[in-house]
């Protein structure tokens, strides 16, 4: 997937300024596809040159005008072509998992450092899960979805929730194993 496709999906959901897009990436899309603000603005300019998106200047009281981007029919067609292409399974590269395996070759002090790293990593995933659950309560309070777009957004969010729960369960297992080794 390219950043262009993630931006097209976001703009088809709702036109936005570059700043608003960056906030969406920070808030929701970012756990599935990350991008810096600079990357987003650079790609917006490229997508505009390719006629996939168009900007409308919107005046703001006391502030400079902002560009609100929306997808063009050509952008939508590009997205549809990408949507219909097959997806290859992704290779998983997990640095923490390699460190955990490598802990067999370290001494107990090294395992203590690893435990602290696993706990830090776990706290990050716990915070992400809490954010996903808060978003679910905010955006889907009764669990019902009004249309296909909302239903698909919710199923992706549920996938993120399930993933974070799986990672937390695994990290709890890692911590229990490290505890057992130190007895």
From TrEMBL:
<dbReference type="InterPro" id="IPR018309">
    <property type="entry name" value="Tscrpt_reg_PadR_C"/>
</dbReference>
<dbReference type="InterPro" id="IPR036390">
    <property type="entry name" value="WH_DNA-bd_sf"/>
</dbReference>
<feature type="domain" description="Transcription regulator PadR N-terminal">
    <location>
        <begin position="7"/>
        <end position="79"/>
    </location>
</feature>
<protein>
    <submittedName>
        <fullName>DNA-binding transcriptional regulator, PadR family</fullName>
    </submittedName>
</protein>
<dbReference type="InterPro" id="IPR005149">
    <property type="entry name" value="Tscrpt_reg_PadR_N"/>
</dbReference>
<keyword id="KW-0238">DNA-binding</keyword>
<dbReference type="InterPro" id="IPR036388">
    <property type="entry name" value="WH-like_DNA-bd_sf"/>
</dbReference>
<dbReference type="GO" id="GO:0003677">
    <property type="term" value="F:DNA binding"/>
</dbReference>
<dbReference type="Pfam" id="PF10400">
    <property type="entry name" value="Vir_act_alpha_C"/>
</dbReference>
<feature type="domain" description="Transcription regulator PadR C-terminal">
    <location>
        <begin position="92"/>
        <end position="178"/>
    </location>
</feature>
<dbReference type="Pfam" id="PF03551">
    <property type="entry name" value="PadR"/>
</dbReference>
